[in-house]
Every structure is written in C-alpha cells, then in structure tokens.
Amino acid sequence: MSIDKTMSPLKKLNGIVKGSCLATSFLTLLPLMLCLAADNAFAQSSATASQESWQSISNHWGTVPLSKIIQAAEANDLSAQYFLGAAFADGNVVSKDPRESFKWMSKAAQQGMARAQREAAFMHYDGTGTEQNFIEAARLCRLAAEQGDAHAQNLLGWLYQKGQGIQENPQEAVKWYERAAARSNSMAQINLAWIYAAGIYGATNTFGQGSEAQVKSGGIAPNHDLAESWMKKAVDLNSSEGKFVLAL
User: Fold this and answer.
1) Residue in 14, 56, 55 with CA at minimum distance from that of residue 33
2) Would you tell me which of 22, 85, 110, 124 could form a disulfide with 105, CB atoms 3.0–4.6 Å apart?
3) What is the DSSP letter of 204?
4) What is the distance between the alpha carbons of residues 248 and 38, in angstroms, rounded to a whole number?
C-alpha cells in the first residue's frame, strides 16, 4: 500500500486503518497517531524557527536565564541552539568560547537552519572553535547557499574560485557570485568586478595566455563593462571607499 507523502499524519493513519487487512483497532493505533502528530508539529516548529530573524531570536532569548536557554537547546530547540552559538561567538550574555559556539551552531545547522549552516561553514573555513576543514566548509556552505543565503552563496563562489574543499571551477564561482550579488551582497558584487576586470583562467590551462586561453581553459574572459557595472553596484565610486577600491 502506498501512502501520499503530502497527506497529513492523521489522513495517513486513516488510510492505513481503512486499507489494512488486519483487524487492528483504532485504539491500538492511537499511540502511533499521537507520535505522528507530534513529529509533524515539531517539523513545523523547526521550519518556522529556521526562518526566524536574528532580532526575533535575540528578543526571545535575551532576557531568559542561561540555564533555561541551555535546557531548551539540549531539548533541540532550534532558535535556542542558534542563540547560544551566536552568544558564545560574540561573548554576549556568556563568556566568549569558540568551541561552545561551534558546538551549538553545528547543532542548529544539523536542523537545517541556513544561517547556522553558513556560520558553521565559516568556522570550518577559518578553523574557529574546530579544526580547519575546507571540505566540510564547502558542504555546509552549499546547504545554506541552496536555501538562498547570500553570504553562503558568496563564500561558495570563493571556494569554487580558489578550489578550496571543492574542485576549482571559475564558471561555478561566477554562478554563485551572481546569485549572491542578485541579493545585494556587496562582497559578491566586488568579487564579480575583479573577475571581469582581469579575467580568470580555468583550473588547468594549457592554452597559453590571454582572454582566448582563459575561455578555452574553462575560465572567464575580461569584460570591463561588466567589471565597472558590478563595482558601481557594490560601492559609490566617488566615495572614499570607492576610490580606495579603484586604487587597488
């Protein structure tokens, strides 16, 4: 018997009861029904928490005693786990502790929170609170990037550009930079500007030098119009920051 995965737990159970060849009573299946309903409620709660803003999380837990926050986090409360990860990273409410920050951020990341996956990716990348691990950084970064996190998309582009923890691929780098840039991530916009300013060679270049070799090797040819366009989106070229960038 196949069960529609889009059905609610109660409807699934009703289908099981109706379609069963066994004379199983409803009361016998009641514990299963309650378990399915609880699992569904927890999944909905986790999904809501994963989209909750930092302001909301901070307002919720900021005045709660630390022991209560830890208790909630140990009971798999997603927002409590993220709050502890951020608090231990910044030394806010608690003493700064990179290892504790990594511990709680990783738990939140395991529950699918994009911003926690991104923060854990950065910690793996920098070796903050854990051993430096580019492969794990790339894995977590992709999870967050695929959920639309612009900072993670920019980092994933950087990892593809540098070949850190992932196969070097300029085309993929540009793809993820562009996704982040479309979300107004200024660092991604600057990264695109630099790539288009000078072009970039593919991972293995056996075609010599120049824009043609860049393209043939799987890289990106220079495009000064695009470089200027992306830089203008990132910074005001007439500002002190913009003049500094242009001088680099």
Assistant:
1) 14
2) 85
3) S
4) 57
Distance (Å, whole) CA 234 – CA 226: 12
Q: CA distances (Å), 161 to each of 122, 156, 168, 188, in order?
A: 16, 9, 6, 12
CB 229 within 8 A of CB 235: no
CA–CA separation, 115 vs 61, rounded Å? 17
Please give the structure tokens belonging to residue 168: 């070097």
pTM recorded for the entire structure: 0.74
Residue 229 tokens, joined? 């366009």
Place of tokens 């919720």: 60
How confident is the model over 2-59, as pLDDT tens digits? Answer: 333 433 333 332 333 334 343 334 333 333 333 333 344 333 434 445 567 778 887 8
Give which of 33, 42, 43, 27 is closest to 13, Cα–Cα: 33
Distance CA 33, CA 66 (A): 35
Backbone angles phi, psi at 165, to 5 degrees: 75, 5
Locate 135 and state its tokens.
Answer: 């492969």
Query: How many angstroms separate the CA atoms of 236 and 64, rounded?
Result: 42
Give percent of the chain with pLDDT exceeding 70: 74
Say how many C-beta atoms besides its own lie within 10 A of residue 38's C-beta: 11
Inter-CA distances, 110 with 76, 77, 102, 105, 136, Å: 10, 12, 12, 9, 13
Q: Mean pLDDT, to the nearest integer, of 175-199? A: 95
Per the listing, tokens 């004379």 go with 23
How far is the C-alpha of 93 from the C-alpha of 225, rounded, in Å? 48
Which residues is 82 bridged to in the sheet?
none
Q: What is the DSSP letter of 22?
A: S
